[in-house]
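As a warm-up, study this chain.
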Amino acid sequence: MTVAAAPSRIAPETIADALLEARARTLLLVAPLSDEDLYAQHDPLMSPILWDLGHIARFEELWLTRNLDGRIEFVEMPGMYNPFEHPRSTRAALPLPGLAECRAIMDEIRGRVLARLVSTDFDPADPLLRDGFVYRMVLQHEYQHNETMLQTLQLKRGAPYTPLLRVPADGSAPRRPPRPGEMVLFPGGPVEIGTGDRSAAYDNERPAHRVELKPFWIDAHPVTNGDILVFIGAGGYETPELWSEEGWRWRTESAARAPKYWRYADGGWTTRTMDRIGPVDPWHPVCHVCYHEAEAYARFAGKRLPTELEWEAAASWDPATGAKRRFPWGDAPADRSLANVDQLAFGTAPIGSHPKNVSPIGCHGMIGDVWEWTASDFGPWPGFESFPYKEYSEVFFGTEYRVLRGGSWATRPGAIRGTFRNWDYPIRRQIFSGFRCARDA
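Now compare it with the structure written out below.
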């Protein structure tokens, strides 16, 4: 069940089913882990998995019990699971309960939530309850923590993470073989950016507004591993002129010579995704690159990164009809038949594998596989209003973060749409991030 479709009315049973399905996925992901794995801080950038589980539960308790009593009491539950009180690098020192106790807490909170849900009035005058917004927000919160947990599991110390269940991507052979470096033209003109949706969209996606864009070219497919192999072979990681000053500083300090998880041995490159190691496949979109790597490659290719306005227009705007789509293919919610999403493939698919995942102007794969870096800082749309709490978006606005778009293979379908905005520091590589390039027309 995908909750991003935003029906005008919603039944409590539909919400209950979605909550149960989300929890089943969370528990499926952690099922193979030992107690040591659950407690460990596998990287200072990430929380122990047990902290994520406790935070998921307390966030649900706060928003689906306490904050439904007529006023917003807190925006994050005070105490051990408050992310502002306890930065990620400190969470391993917290007295985290073991899995059995954590599960009991999660179940007890869920029991109260479901009991209350039976009599919930989705009052259209209450912005938290209208169209089930607060329930969708909590669902997306758990979906997003699933993806964060997968980042942690990819970084896992010791034996690599082996999933309990793997489901191959539902793609098929493309209608025609992709042409590396192919670009498509966006003709420019007035386009609609953002959304007016208040049932599922976050505050930073609103409001819908018009902008005027100049014509531009944009890659028909994400940049591939094969493209990056050419960049490496041409000395791209050793050429300061291709990097910004900040980017070259990162490259030097990190000693990066290839995307994260790539290794060179015996005359060739290999890469690892969870417990699987194999040769770098040139037809897959590159994954685990930071903004600086994306920017340097774009300069090497004689291109640039798209702005997020250009990205959203290329993904969702139909110049022929002057209409906006929720997704590149139309308004049907994302699923594994349309895009490489929903986690269980545990990796990217070759470009062009989902022929229906194409935008009106001919951009392929703009939903799923890899989050795509854009050239834009994270900031508010004109007319932005913080809701229901400024700590979700507003406190992160500024020049520190770059925006990523489109979701990844690790993104749940209910947590992605054409207007969804992700953001992170430009040095981050643990995220499932890639990019595509653009240039002026």
